[in-house]
Amino acid sequence: MTADIKKETLGFQTEAKQLLHLMINSLYSNKEIFLRELISNASDAIDKLRFASLADESLLEGQGDFAIRVDVDKDANTITITDNGIGMTREEVIDHLGTIAKSGTAAFLENLTGDQKKDSQLIGQFGVGFYSAFIVADRVEVHTRKAGHDADAGVLWESHGESEFSIESLPRDTRGTSITLHLKPTATEFADDWRVRSVIKKYSDHIAVPVEMLQPATPPAPEGEETAEEAPEPQYEAVNEATALWTRPRAEITDDEYKAFYRHISHDYDDPLTWSHNKVEGKQEYTSLLYIPKRAPFDLWNREMARGLKLYVQRTFIMDEAEQFLPLYLRFVKGVVDSNDLPLNVSREILQRDSSVDAMRSALSKRVLDMLSKLAKKGGEDYATFWKEFGQVLKEGPAEDMANKEKIAKLLRFATTHTDQADQDQSLDEYVARMQEGQEKIYYVVAENFNTARKSPHLEVFRKKGIEVLLLTDRVDDWLMNQLQEFDGKPLQDVARGALDLQDDSEEGKAEQEKLEKESESLVERLTKVLGDSVSEVRPSARLTESPACLVVGDYDMGAQMRRILEAAGQPVPDSKPILEINPAHPLLQMLDSEQDEARFADLGQVILDQATLAEGGQLEDPASFVSRLNALLLQMSKA
Ligand SMILES: Nc1ncnc2c1ncn2[C@@H]1O[C@H](COP(=O)(O)OP(=O)(O)OP(=O)(O)O)[C@@H](O)[C@H]1O
């Protein structure tokens, strides 16, 4: 059969083109990463074939020694990376190397800021992949043949990395892929044997497949000396260590090796914040190597974000993104798990049902939480960095993972009135240590933003008494507090909810309070009447020292923040009315008390209620009436 020699020229998909252009222009200062990316792809291709051959051994075509070879040619100014992995069909070549955008490309492009430095980091996170070849090459040829297909199914793909690529049939005896890079004049160093060796060592020691290069040629014998025999043909030799990193004993692995491996599996440019490598023996046997990244991926909040660990069974790669091994709130963790017990033909469906996977998931969750508490205890900037990037995700934990509620709670960080800074850097343990004698609860206020929280009228009495309050402003916070309920046996109390038990219990204090209530009785009664259905109750306040009034949520009613979130999401919100608490000692309330004109009393009363709503960051149902009432009152004042 004659090979189909038809040659087609096709255009890159728009997003692929954009990405290619961006990458070439942002990554030129870190050229050598192309080799890491191409070797990484080659090793993935070998992993895929190894896995496929478990079900169909004939795919190996009798050749089960896997290797990646790197050849350099100084004269031709090329470097070629060859693997004997799964290879690609013509359709796969067209799809993967030209037309199908990687998942997330569009989201990635949207996330670009235009700032070169930031964007190049983002590109690193995104995983630059095959196109990184064009950082160093002005022409790239890919010759490939899918395992299990005839030699005639070989395909040659070629591109100058601009807008098009060509594809034609070219028979290939061996399965797998070779990628030849015709180096740019600025990248000729990558045709140099020693330079390439050092890059391979740097990035590929931990790859389980040997990466081979030809032994350096022995220098010719000096003139006049007889060479005993013909110089032997140079042989290929492994340049990298070629053992899966996680299978080696911890004590023998250097930090640099751990970091390089992290970059390999995560495609991150940065080093990880920390990692944990463990071998578990006994009822279950597995090894895990888990990393905490320094930066959140751009799609952390995308439901479809790629998450999960790389799964191996007895050192054979099974799948990427096995998400069954960690709960959703730990979705930022990267790493590898290698099980000795799972069957080699394990599928995602089996993982979902397997009880040993559940046991591993709970052990791995604990491991991550322990790793985080260690990081927190270590002090320094690392935990703060972690919290900034992933704190919001961790806050989902108490709801998802009841068993580890207390452990997670210890890892939470908050802004509080202790520092009065927006930085979330105080732990609940620290709060508890600072609690006043007799203080039984942990107090918090929830608001839309830091300033509203910090200036909330609800805090007045706490500030006066020197009691610390957590200042919560993240969307999940109200919900988080409802999930947590308590910490270290101390209930968590929203300062805007229910009656406050901060009264002064001394005889004097009690008498004072009673007097206040008695004196404000008629004012409360009049206000209750004019405010009617807008509030569920009017009462004198133990909370306020400076503000005239504030809104309080009933013990069992939904908090204001939760209400706003649900409303914004178009969810039904149960009907409940706030309680208006007034500060009878405030001059405005005293003026109100002595107001004889009932119409003016009603207007002023309404303004006080509206102000209390505004002060907690709420919205008025009828802002125009508020403004006209206020204006009328201002005018009356100027006339008086
Ligand atoms: N050496 C190879 N052998 C077989 N298939 C390959 C090879 N190199 C690339 N591919 C195919 O091309 C696809 C695109 O490669 P590319 O490196 O751009 O992205 P990726 O590997 O999917 O992502 P990333 O590099 O971010 O992990 C791969 O997913 C794979 O299907």
Automatic annotation (TrEMBL):
InterPro entries: HATPase_C_sf, HATPase_dom, Heat_shock_protein_90_CS, HSP90_C, Hsp90_fam, Hsp90_N, Ribosomal_Su5_D2-typ_SF. Homodimer. Molecular chaperone. Has ATPase activity. Keywords: ATP-binding, Chaperone, Coiled coil, Cytoplasm, Nucleotide-binding, Stress response. Residues 223-232 have a biased composition (Acidic residues). Residues 499-526 form a coiled coil. HAMAP family: HSP90. This is Chaperone protein HtpG. The lineage of its organism: Bacteria, Pseudomonadati, Pseudomonadota, Gammaproteobacteria, Cellvibrionales. Residues 349-564 are annotated as: B. ATP binds at residues 37, 41, 83, 88, 102-104, 125-130, 177, 348. It comes from the Bacteria. The keyword Cytoplasm applies. It holds the Pfam family HATPase_c_3.
